[in-house]
Amino acid sequence: MIVRIVLWGLADAKASYEELEQKLPPLPAPSVWLWNEVNERFGALVHDVDEAVDALAEARALIGKEPELYEEFDAL
Question: Residue 35's closest CA among 61, 71, 10, 67?
């Protein structure tokens, strides 16, 4: 199984945490949205990118830029 981590910095984003929380759909379990208000970071831990592609595209559009980190890992 491949697991992906996607992260954005929100310091210069078009959307706030509150807007993202209100407008983004939930990800299909076990994928989850990730929040770190203190460090102004937002992202997702995605287990099946095919099921989350629309939600990630919506996040990208709301934030107004590509993710700063997109990493793939093999899950053991």
Answer: 10
Domain ranges of the chain: 2-74
Q: Which helix (H) or strand (E) holds 3?
A: strand 2-9
Rounded to whole angstroms, the Cα distance separating 9 from 7 reads 7
Is residue 9 classed as helix, strand or coil in its secondary structure?
strand
- Give the other-Cβ count within 10 Å of 27's Cβ: 19
What is the pLDDT at residue 27? 94
**All residues at 6 or more sequence positions from 53 whose CB lies less than 8 Å from its CB, including other chains:** none
Fold of 2-74: Alpha-Beta Plaits (3.30.70)
Give the position of tokens 């910095």.
Answer: 9
Q: What pTM did the predictor assign?
A: 0.87
| Span 41-58, pLDDT tens digits | 999 999 987 889 999 999
